[in-house]
Amino acid sequence: MGVAIAGLTSDARILSNYLRNEAMKYRIVYDRPQPVNRAMDAIGTKAQKNTQSYGGRPYGVGLLAIGKDSTGPHLFEFSPSGIISEYYAYSIGSRSQTARTYLERHYQSFANDNGSGDCSASTNDLIIHGLKALRDTLPQDKHLDCNNITISYIDSNTDFTIVDGEDTQKYLDLLEDNISSNNSMPVDDAE
Amino acid sequence: MLAADCLASYGSLARFRNVQRIHPAGPSTLIAGSGDISDFQYVQRELDQLLEREHAIDDGQFIGAKSIYRFVSSLMYARRSKVNPLWNKFIIAGYEQSGENPSGSTAGDGKQGEAFLGFVDLYGTTFVDNVMATGYGAHLALPILRKHVEGDLSSQENQDVDHQERQRQKYMALTEQQASEILDTCMRVLFYRDARSLNKIQKAKITTSGYEITEPYSLDTNWDFAEHIIGYSQ
After folding, report:
1. Which family does it belong to (chain B) (predicted)?
2. Does A158 touch chain B (CB under 8 A)?
3. Which chain A residue has the Cα nearest residue B111?
4. pLDDT digits (tens, 9 = 90+) for B30-77
5. A·B CB contacts under 8 A
6. Whole-angstrom Cα Rg for chain B
7. Could you tell me if B60 and B102 are in contact, meaning their C-beta atoms sit under 8 angstroms apart?
8. Count of structural domains within chain B
9. What is the ipTM, given to two decimal places?
10. How sure is the predictor about B100, in pLDDT bands with cuts at 50, 70 and 90?
11. What are the residues facing B23 on neighbouring strands?
12. Domains, chain A
C-alpha cells in the first residue's frame, strides 16, 4: 500500500506512520495483509476527531492511496474531513479538476463494474492514462519531464513500487509513442 | 478431517460423556481442543466475539483458518507469559477462503482454497504439519497417520524425494473414504490402549464449501482376547 500527498507533508508523515503501525498490528494479529478499506477507515476515523473537538485543527493534507488485498487492487481518497471514498480513477490537489475531467472521460476503458478486480488495461496503459491526465493540468509553456513527475503503481505481480527521476523516462517515452499514434488508446485484450 | 471423542474428564472420573470437542470458527475453520473444557469454552467465546466483530464490519473480508490460528496462538502465548495459561492443546484445521468467494473475485493474493492444519498448546508452541494428534494420540495415532501419508521412510524409493512434497503427494492421493477409515482405525487403537478414553466419537470434515460434524457414534471393537487372559502377564 502507498500514498500520494497533496498538502502539508508534515501532517502526511503523521498519517503515514499511523497507517504503517495499523497495518503492522493487523498483520501480527491476523497473519495476513490489512485490507485497504480498513486501513483507510482507520485514518478517516482518526482525522474526523480533529473536526469535532476544540483547540485542535484538521489534518492539512489529502491523500490518494493505492493498495491490494484479498479483494484485489483499490484506489482511495482521504480528505481532512475524514471522508474516505473509493474510486476507479481520481485526482486531487490544485489544478486537479482538468485531470479529473480527463479521467471521467476515459475511466470506463479500464474500470470494471462486476467487482472482479480484473482490469481490461495493462499496467502501462494505466500509467499512460495517468500521465495524460497530468499533462492536461500543465500551463502552455510547461512539459512533463523526469524531474517533475513521480509514478507509483501496484499490480497483481508487483507490490507498491515508486518510479522516480531517470526511471520515469521510460514511461514518458511510452507516452510520446502513444500520442504520436493518433492519440488513440490501444484497446488491449483482457490480460 | 478431524476426530475426537466425546469425553470431558474430572481427573480420572469420566464425568461428562456427551461433549462436542470439535467446534466451528467461521465458515472455513474447525478448532478441536483437548485439556481443560472451561478454557476451551473461553477460547470459543473469544473466537465468537472476533467473528461477530468481523460480521458487524460487513465489508466482505473473510477470516480464514490461518488468521484464526494466529489469533488463538497469540492468545495462548500471551496467557502463558502471564503465568496464567489456558490449559489446552488445540488443533486448528480449515481453509483460507471459501470456494465461493462472496465478491466473485478472481483477483487478490491467490490464497483462496489453500488448506491449513496447525497445532497450538498451553505454552504457545505452534507448528504446522500434514498430520496431527494430541495426548495419547501423539504417541499411538501419529505413527499410523504418518505411515499413510509418507510410507516407509527407510525404503530406497523414498530416500531422494523431498519429504514435504512426498507427504503432500501421498495425502493428496487419499480419498475421503480412506481418510475416514484411517481416522476410525486410530480412534479404535486409542480406545483399546488409553485407559481414560471413551468409545463415543465424532468425526468432522472441512472443505472449501463448508464443514460437517457427524453425530456421536461408537466404533466396533473385539474384546474376545480378554477371555484367554489369566493374571497380569502371559
Report:
1. Belongs to the peptidase T1B family.
2. no
3. A70
4. 999 999 999 999 999 999 999 999 999 998 888 999 999 999 999 999
5. 65
6. 19
7. yes
8. 1
9. 0.80
10. very low
11. B31
12. 1-87 (3.60.20.10), 93-191 (3.60.20.10)
Cβ of A115 within 8 Å of Cβ of B105? The answer is: yes
Q: Cα(A90)–Cα(A102) distance, rounded to whole angstroms?
A: 10
A159 touches chain B (CB under 8 A): no
- Interchain contact, A114 vs B104, CB within 8 Å: yes
The CATH number for B162's domain is 3.60.20.10
A141/chain B closest Cα distance in angstroms:
42
Given this model, what pLDDT does residue B159 score?
62
Residue B233 lies in a domain: no
Crossing angle of the two packed helices A169-180 and A123-135, in degrees rounded to 10: 80
Chain A nearest C-alpha distance from B44 (Å): 17
CB A91 within 8 A of CB A79: no
> Are B85 and B76 contacting, i.e. CB atoms less than 8 angstroms apart?
yes
Q: Is B226 on the interface with A (CB under 8 A)?
A: no
Q: Is residue B231 part of a domain?
A: no
Cα dist. B233→A13, B225, B229, B230 in Å?
77, 13, 8, 8
Q: How many CB atoms lie within 10 A of CB A188?
A: 14
Could you report the per-residue pLDDT of A108-149, keeping only the tens digit for each?
A: 988 865 555 567 788 999 999 999 999 999 999 999 999 999
For chain A, the three-class secondary structure string (H helix, E strand, C coil) is CEEEEEECHHHHHHHHHHHHHHHHHHHHHHCCCCCHHHHHHHHHHHHHHCCCCCCCCCCCEEEEEEEEECCEEEEEEECCCCCEEECCCCCCCCCHHHHHHHHHHHHHHCCCCCCCCCCCCCHHHHHHHHHHHHHCCCCCCCCCCCCCCEEEEEECCEEEEEEEHHHHHHHHHHHHHHHHCCCCCCCCCCC
Residue ranges making up the domain that contains B14: 2-223
A7 and chain B in contact, CB less than 8 A: no
Q: Does B49 touch chain A (CB under 8 A)?
A: no
Report if residue B230 sits inside a domain.
no
Asked if B104's CB is within 8 angstroms of A71's CB, the reply is: no
Cα dist from B119 to A15, B67, B123, B124, B132, whole Å: 38, 13, 11, 9, 7
Phi-psi region of A121 (alpha: psi -120 to 50; beta: other; left: phi over 0): beta
Give domain status of residue B162, yes or no: yes
* B84: helix, strand or coil: coil
- Residues A71, B108: C-beta atoms closer than 8 Å: yes
The answer, for A117 touching chain B at a CB cutoff of 8 Å, is yes
